[in-house]
Amino acid sequence: MRNQQATKLIFELSRPGRRAAVLDPPDLPVPEASDCLPAEHLADGPPPLPELAEGDVVRHFVNLSTQNMSVDTHFYPLGSCTMKYNPKRNERLASLPGFAAVHPLQDEATTQGWLRVLYELQQMLGEISGLPGVSLQPAAGAHGELTALMVAAAHFRQRGEARDIVLTADSAHGTNPASAAMVGYETRTVVSGPDGLVDVDDLRAKLDDRVAVFMLTNPNTLGLFDSRIREITSMVHDRGGLIYLDGANMNAILGIVRPGDFGADLMHYNPHKTFSGPHGGGGPGAGPICVREDLARFLPRPIVRRDGDRYFWDEEGEDSIGRVRSFFGNQGILLRAFAYLRTYGGDGLRQVSEDAVLGANYLLSRVRHILDVPHGERCMHEFVATAARLKKERGLSAMDLAKRILDFGFHAPTVYFPLVVEEAVMIEPTETESKETLDAFAEALFRVTEEAVDLVKDAPHTTRISRPDDVAASRRPVIRWTP
Amino acid sequence: MTGYLFHTPEDRREMLAAIGAASIGEILDAQIPADVRFQRQLDLPKGLDEIGLERLMRDLAAENVSAASHLCFLGGGAYDHFIPAVVDEIASRGEYYTSYTPYQAEASQGNLQVMFEYETLITQLTGLGVSNASLYDGGSAMVEAVLMALAADSSRRRVVTTRTVHPHYRQTLDTYLCNLDAEAIVVEPAADGSAGPIIDQIDSQTACVVIQHPNFFGRLEDVRAICDAAHRVGALAIQVFDPISLGLLKRPGDLGADIAIAEGQCLGSPLQMGGPYLGILACREELVRRLPGRLAGQTTDRRGNRCWVLTLQTREQHIRRAKATSNICSNQSLLALRATIYLSLLGPQGLRETAEHCVRKTRYLRDRIDQHDRLSCVHAGPVFKEFVVRDSRGDVEGLLGQALGQGVLAGVPLAPWYPEMEDCFLVAVTEKRSREDIDRWLESVGGDAADAAPTQGRSVAAV
Predict the structure, then answer these.
(1) Do B130 and B194 lie in a common domain?
(2) CA distances from B21 to A362, B6, B8, B50 (A)
(3) Is residue B70 part of a domain?
(4) ipTM greater than 0.95, yes or no?
(5) Which of residues 86-125 of A touch B (CB under 8 A)?
(6) Does the beta-carbon distance from B54 to A93 stay under 8 Å?
(7) Potential cystine with A241: which of A54, A236, A337, A402 (Cβ 3.0-4.6 Å)?
(8) Which of A42, A410, A479, A482 to mutate to test the interface with B (most CBs of B within 10 A)?
(9) Could you list the residue range(s) of the whole structural domain that residue A373 is in?
(10) pLDDT one-digit tens code per residue, A273-300
């Protein structure tokens, strides 16, 4: 039985004078606080925050949590997001006071354990990518893209080359062109061919001496590994450009292919995806980047280095682009990535990717009989189906499928991305799901496509709310509570 | 095999049979050219079982000094404030931390409502009309605020700021501006802390002015005068604020700030070596279409129920791509959740009490230092929870090392950012420090706390 009060806002639960946290006044021989500060700086009273009892707060947020689907509670095949299991051991370890209660500005002699974690993580990320220059500073994948593009810009500036264009694939994440714009680059889009891969002729046509970087995702967002990757990277290198790899899909290739080996010069990882994060309801993630040896001097500072048994922050580097955030990075997430990598080791990581590919291909083999899958008999860690035929024949869209699948106790796949597939349904099962779960999901998907149209169009039926009015939300934005 | 995999050998056989492949190698070979395949095994340390991992990580954790093993008086943008148990308890629920961005609103009403509550709390805290659902951290949030100002009027390319703004934030700004056609003017502050030197630099080319109040040295700035000066020439005013200080101090919106940003780590998130933290950004309602990042809004569903969705998404990269207000994709939901719970627990009175503790405990330590033979407070004026101490012997490293030996993290040296302050360090006192803790600070740096202490009883001397 659902708690009917659970959807009230904390502001509506507030009662004047109700308290949770109470601090006894300190016993100190000093004036009252209001006498320690000049009157012109003092507010008339504290901000109008809600007033609640501790029990209110707990019940409210626990009940709200039950209105989320999550990896811990549901299969969550959200393509491109790698919603794999988040190990509980990593959560406990990250909360150890020796990690969680360390201040970022402590003397490095007092943080040797932390620095060793970060140093060894740099080494491991360099090995996995085949790109030895590593910065742990970026706070998220998009931030990593931005940072790497700044590195590329510094590289060209130093060479005196005025390159002002970044190429992105039409199947790329929206962050690619948005990151390029923030570094002052103009974006040109390279189209995909009928096979879903980079159209090499289009790339050739758009490639000139103004192109600084080609940002590509490989395996791409269709879950396909580009078989002409060598040719593509060579073409760009021959014109003096750099290759950036969007590492969102690294879960497919750990220990199987290294970006540095197929011609990537810079890349980011999404540790919240590939290395079990977790995703935190939309963040925090982290976005460490790896670059070719000769580009490493442009990386943000500081970088962790080792001198014998001692680890230290290296702040030096006159070619460095500078810092891209306060302090050093999303260490809490990086620590979990470290624990994840130490759990699997090299051969274990390869097994992770092989199982991710196995799971995706198995699900593909079943879904192919339910929905069209335009690209590929085979896929890497994910695949993109289309509801275009279903829409034409029965009027059911990708969004309708996504909404109805929630009723079967599964989170929806990513829909309407990538943009190159009409009515896209992007499915990424990850390696941490059983064959039984994949079977049950395929079975549910099949049933949805056979169900009465009205039933599907009105779905979901089992969630507290159904089909919120996005248009009204945008047209008359209510983005804060008012009494 | 350690780890979190599922498939038994039998599963693998059945799955391969259904796929129609003899092996996983065959599936990979069909897609990946042989000449790019990785030919050896990754050179990583061998995998560990849970007991082995736990041993390794506990050993590493034991090599670190922390605010749990030592008394922490470090600040500079990250603070050892108290985190109520409720915050950890709720935020460790898998329904929160193992979910993702609410792309399907029906499956994410918990997260969406928390985002809406967070946004509302931040507007209440700042006195501004709009807050996004959070950004990465204080430094990048400040940059995003500046980018909003630069986008608001493309003819204005100057950003006026001062050396009393967090050095990391200013360094981050420099990094971003380097590739854009804009420059930051960094003003040397007046010795008496007055706003004159900043106001003098604001002109018709100024896109925005960025000040921090309380500033990096804990001092109070004349925010209203600076905002007024900015507005006179049509520039935007951006204030970097300390959320805890708003238990006592006037709110950014009430002082005239157009955009307010903060590091929200102080609102219930652990220090964790500098991240992940919480970037807070609030602005006046007129600026909402330029706001970077996620935004949750209220609407109704098909049955008429009130509910929450991601809204105004046409600002964002997944719709607008190169024309988005920012490249940001994620937010810091889990930390925004922590801040939401924290502020719900504190309420107006709890926030006020926390701020009062900071001010009075800081005052207590400053009074002691005023009587110290070796140390002195550099700035005489009022401060919030942080201040600069000068060592007359100029041996900051020795002094802090000595304190460390006695279990006290006594301060942050300022020399790395302010070469002229090589004999100075920054000290922060939060509500967590007891009077005894503060006395131990004095003992640890070689002060004579006992001699210096006045007779018991509360002094009510005015400032």
Answers:
(1) yes
(2) 10, 20, 17, 34
(3) no
(4) yes
(5) 86-87, 89, 91, 93-107, 110-114, 116-117, 120, 124
(6) yes
(7) A236
(8) A479
(9) 345-457
(10) 999 999 999 999 999 999 999 999 999 9
